[in-house]
Amino acid sequence: MTAPPCEDVAVRAEGLTKRYGKTYALDDCDLVLPSGHVVALVGPNGAGKTTLLRLISGLLRPTSGRVSVLGVTAPAGTVDIADTAAALARVGYVAQEHPLYRRFTVSELLRFGRELNPGWDADLGRERLADLDIPLDRRAAELSGGQQAQVALVLALAKRPRLLVLDEPLAQLDPLARREFLSTLMAAVAEDGITVLFSSHVVSELERVCDWLVLIAGGRIHLSSDVDTLLADHRLLVGPRNGHDETLGSAEGVLTVALGARHVNVVARTGTGPVSPGWEAHPLGLEDLVHAYLQHARTAPPAPAKEVRLP
Ligand code: ATP
Predict the structure, then answer these.
(1) pLDDT of 119 strictly over 50
(2) Does residue 41 line the site of ligand 1, with CB under 6 A?
């Protein structure tokens, strides 16, 4: 008999690896995502985001390692297949291009969803689409890109998932559609306490929405942390140039160094303690922090940054 699923952890990956021929899309990744968070997955093109999301959603099998979702190990694992099917029924997945059956009307898509999903919430689907003014008799192919994204999200939500996985849901949406999409998402999180994991290149929107950040580059996880802790731990340090500034980049905890004519700007994990005389510390927004980590990830291996004292 299998142990009851532990839902405190939404996703747990251990040594998760996915190889396509000679390409390692994911390489020996460990990751723990606690339940009840809105998790943003960021990383450059080709980092392995889609691969990770598809592994978590049970659409891909790992080459090695394992991933557990809502306490149950997905297909490559060793658990009973019935448990796996039950776990995956609690996962909603919306692919990058939010594919819909283009010839189906919205109403037919809802009926299709109801027939395929035992826990289908028909009222939720209809109410959210009415709120969004999306006509039920319109074919998917005749909806705008933003409306298609909204319909795909509503279909995923009506499944009543405990974990909702969205691959670049904001791509191709105009700023207004982006806001509406995120509002729909946030309403579902507030009402149902689900866990949301979404990848995005639209870093400017993240601070408003996510409370956990995962950064991936080159198939490796570089960062996984709650956003409040990250923002409290990292700062922009501004200090005088002193002729040895080139060495700052290799100091532990330093993410980026920008040299100006008279000053040097350093983004680093500093903790909250005092900084050295002559240096000023400024808080960072999430967007700046993500950019610093993305820049750092281009050259550095995925070692956890430690606190730093400068100079
Ligand atoms: P993007 O931001 O551009 O969507 P991503 O972070 O989602 O990128 P993945 O799509 O997961 O990245 O791809 C990770 C790596 O795996 C890339 O090097 C990609 O070329 C490779 N890859 C992905 N899918 C396949 C496939 N089916 N066959 C071969 N290689 C693949």
Answers:
(1) yes
(2) no
pTM of the model: 0.87
Rounded Cα distance between 132 and 267, Å, is 41
Residue to mutate (ligand 1; options 29, 49, 63; most atoms within 8 A of CB): 49
- Is residue 113, in this structure, part of any structural domain at all? yes
Domain that holds residue 266: 232-297
Number of domains within the chain? 2
Q: Would the CB of 50 count as within 6 Å of ligand 1?
A: yes
- Assess whether 164 and 50 both reside in one domain: yes
* Range in 105-114, 136-145, 272-281 the model is least confident about: 272-281
Residue 214 and residue 239 in one domain: no
Higher-confidence position of 131 and 48:
48
C-alpha distance from residue 155 to each of 4, 108, 111, 187, 224 (Å): 28, 11, 10, 15, 29
- Judgement on whether residues 140 and 208 belong to the same structural domain of the protein: yes
Q: Is the CB of 53 under 6 A from ligand 1?
A: no
Residues 105 and 44 in one domain: yes
The residue nearest atom 31 of ligand 1, judged by CA position, is 20
